[in-house]
Structures are given as C-alpha cells and as structure tokens.
Fold this sequence. Notes:
The chain has ten helices and eleven strands. By secondary structure, it is an alpha+beta fold. The protein has two domains: about 260 residues, Transmembrane di-heme cytochromes, Chain C (Fumarate Reductase Cytochrome B subunit, Up-down Bundle), CATH 1.20.950.20; about 110 residues, Rieske [2Fe-2S] iron-sulphur domain (Rieske Iron-sulfur Protein, 3-layer Sandwich), CATH 2.102.10.10. Helix 1 runs antiparallel to helix 10 and helix 6 packs antiparallel against helix 9. It starts with a helix and ends in an 8-residue tail after the last strand. The protein binds FE2/S2 (inorganic) cluster (FES). FE2/S2 (inorganic) cluster binds next to loops.
Amino acid sequence: MQTFFFIAFPYIALILAIGVGLYRYFSHRFTYSSLSSQLLENRHLFWGSVSWHYGITLILVAHILPWLFPRAAEVVLGDNARLVVLELTGLALGFYCVFGIIVLIARRLPNDSRARAVTSPMDWILLLVLAFQVLSGVGVALFERWGSVWYLSTAVPWLWSLVWLHPDASTVTGLPVFIQAHLISGFVVILLFPFTRLVHVFAIPIEYLWRPYQVVIWNRDPRQPVSSTSAKVPTVFMPTRPAPNDLDRRRLLVRLSILAGSVSAAIVGIPSIAFLLGLRKAPEVWRGLGAADSFQIGQAVEVSFLDSSPLPWSGVTARTAAWLRRESPEQFIAFAINCTHLGCPVRWLPNADLFMCPCHGGVFYKDGTVASGPPPKALVTYPVRVREGVVEILTSPLPITSI
Ligand code: FES
C-alpha cells in the first residue's frame, strides 16, 4: 500500500497533471483561469482571498526552496535562533492560510450565497482538499516541531528520488500517519490541478506589472444600491463562427498537446513501472572512507562520502554522511546519520557514549539501539568492510536506502 501511495501515486498525479493540463490548455484555453466571484460578493472574498493567496504562496516557497537547495537550507537552519524564527513564521503563515480557507469556504455556505451559486462540485472538492492540506500542515508544525529540519532528511530525499526516477520511499514510510497524509494530499492537490480552477496558477496576470494603466469607470452611480432596475444588463458578445484556418490550428494544437502529454507520461511512467516490476534497481557502490588505522577504537567519527549515483549538477548535495565507529582492530560499524524518528541528523556525545537527536530528544546507545525518546527503532546501519587497509561503506542513492 505504501508503495502505491509514495511511489506510484505521485507519478500518476504528475502524469495526469501534465497530460490533462496541456490538453485543457490547448483545447479549452479560455477555461485556464478561475471564475471571479468578486462582482457577486466582495467583502468576505477580500479577507479570504488575500490571506489565502499570500499565505499559501509564501508557504509553497518555504517548501520548494529547501527542496531545491537542501545544503543551503541546512546551513540556514543550523543556527538555533534562525530555526526558531523560521518555524514560528511558518506556523503563523499556516494559521493565516487556515483563516483564509475558512473564510473562502464559509462565504459559500449560506443557501442564498451568490458565491455558492457559482461553486461547482469540483470547487467544493478542491476547497476541502486544500483545507485538509493546510490543517494537516499546521498540525505537523504544532505536534512534530522542527519540521524544517527533518523535512530535509525525510521528504526531500524522497522527492528527489522521484525526480531521479529511482523512487525510494524508505525515508517517509516510517513517518507518523498524519505526516504521511499531509504528503499524500499534496499530490492529491497536484492531481486535481487540471480538473479544477487551480489551473489559474498558470494564468497569473504577471503582465499587469508592466502594462499601461487601465481606467475602470462605473456604469452606474456607486453610491446607489444595486437594484434590478438600476443594474445594467451586461453586454454579451457572441463569439463568431471560427474560420476554417482557426479550426485547423486548434486541431493541430489539440493533437500536439496529446502528443506532448503522452511523451511526458512515457518519460515518467516507463521507468517507474520498471521500478515497480523490479526491473530497475537502485545502484549500490562501495565508497572508501579512509585508512583503517586512522580510526581509533571506541570512537565514533562523522564521515562523508559521495552518493552512489550523483548527477552532474548535484554539487555538494551529492555528498552524504554517516557515523563510523571502530569496535575492534578489525570490526567497524557505520550508522546512518538520520534519526529513525523523523530523520534529523544525530550527534555523537563522546563523554556519554551516546548518540543524541537534537530535534525531539531521541537518544541512542553506542550500538545504535534506542535509549530513550520518540525514535521507534535503532539507528540504521550500513554494510562496512576493510579492503587493503581502507574502510569502505556500501552506499545507495539515499542515506538509509535498502539497508
Ligand atoms: S527526529 Fe525526532 S527524535 Fe530525532
């Protein structure tokens, strides 16, 4: 089941979003927007729309930037004061969004609401999914603190594994259920994208920033209440019959969109199906960590090594780390650096002979077993060997993959 939700479902959502999104854009371009209800009801819309759009935009940026630049995010979050400020800011933005979405839903609830009259069933589904997404996000921030840190070692590797077409959900399958629900519903939002008014994300009127001023003039005295007699009937422009050339071009664009959607579906779908059928394996590589004699018995040291399948543009993010401990002259043990609770990097306390997780106070004994705190299981270990005097570790694309 988890394979479906964390590996198959994200690809299904993305394939449909791209394929149907392109199709809708080329075949029904005038629907690539969201119907405005400002003329029907403005006061509630203002409070709901402003808080929702500003809040969700900033929250999206806060999710995307650490995903794109995880090392930079680690540096930024490495400072406790910055971490606390960012966490509190994120929480405040989350509440801001919750307020916005509640207003947007509430304005549609009364039976005589004009906004309700133009709300389609898909609008309701979208509003409810978005409400769940922000409420679960706020829940995660409240009950699993320091999410900005453990996000880097749980969701980020999983998302990159999807991008690299080496899907690996091992960093997220152990997360609490409500965090998993938050991740999955994020992909539900992506899935809903081409079927709902969410497409307006790509119809942002950016040109408003540089286009010439536009003068809007009321057609009636704005001080007078609108009545059936004073309201002006809007002029309706009937579309003219499209010329044959327009039809040809439209058909061509529809076919091109179907072709582009099929190609993207194949690019994403074939490798993922191969992975699900077991035809595609994540590469594992032995990496040297240094001369065996350079490690002292009884001490744990942090070692860094290159990922087993680095991409040319990965830069420093291709390096990962582990704790290496020399047990005896011949025996070494390597622990994944990530806590088994929510994946924060653990630290070695040499005086106490313990590993300590700074996020929620998880403590591990020197053999990696849990001493106290929320971690559900022992630290993950890597296979280690000594070859020609060099300690080597078996790596895979993610820090705790398939071990
Ligand atoms: S991530 Fe929660 S205790 Fe380590």
